[in-house]
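Hey team,

Filing this mostly as a record. A colleague (T.K.) asked me to run one chain through the structure pipeline before their review meeting, and I want the input and output archived in the tracker in case anyone asks later how it was produced. No errors, nothing strange. Just documentation.

Input sequence:
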Amino acid sequence: MAPVDPEGMDRERQRLARFVRPYTLTAGRTKATVYFPLEATLRRVAFDVDTDLTTGARQVLETCDGRSVAEVASLASIPIGVVRVLLSDLVDQGFVQVQDTLTESSPIHDRIALIERTLSALRTY
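Output structure:
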């Protein structure tokens, strides 16, 4: 019988403790109350440290300012569906705003402004 490595067992327990099923982050909810395109840019409106937020919601809130929904999911290492549900809660609570995205019916000047901002950002690299 192999000797027991108590230190290795502790590391294994810690690794397992960090794994949380996605539905536990949303209390079992799978539908967001707000529609979020993957490219939608998010703005953090307020951030009160004393607010009762879950760990997942706090992580999303800390990550979201000036980023897209897809970027937040990637940076927070949380599935996109879970991020959408958590973001809808944050929008409902007034912590986050979703900036309008361009659609087929958007005016031409909005499209040109987006292209100019994109080119400007690319030039800074």
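Quick notes for T.K.: The beta strands are 42-44, 96-98. The chain has one domain: 21-123.
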